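Page 47, continued from p. 46.
Same chain as before, 165 aa.
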Amino acid sequence: MVQKNLELPDLLRLIDERATAFRAVAARTEARAPREREALAAWLAASTQQLLDTLREAGPDAECWTWWGASQSPRTSGAVARHQLQEIAMHTYDAQLTAGTAQPLPTEVALDGVEDFLFTCCAWSGTWPHEPAVVDYHATEGRSWRFTVEADGARGPPSTVRPGL
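Result:
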């Protein structure tokens, strides 16, 4: 069974949800300089809204600059939204962990993060001087991804999400 990636409205909703959780941790943490912390939380809220507005206005298919260059992840605003969800999710978890209030990542965010990492960071088109190989990644939540490593690089077919390979 192939499952499709999160759509832009879901990515935007989840970015906002994770950013709200991040701000909640910052607001609950004791501060040496409360005015600065409040200003930072307000700035983060405004920045998040600006990001959401910009991504929403651009739509999921607008081409844009990305740091990942030539990978299997597209260079679109939808892919940026997907990656920003992972950024805010991980930084929120780090902040919660530091504050002693760590909450598990929502399963859909964690699983999408695995796929985002695999297709953005692990796929490559460089040469592989060794024998071809297949690498299977399995999440305890039941999703799996299969990557092939061959002479011309490593890749997984788009949406290789499969239960139990």
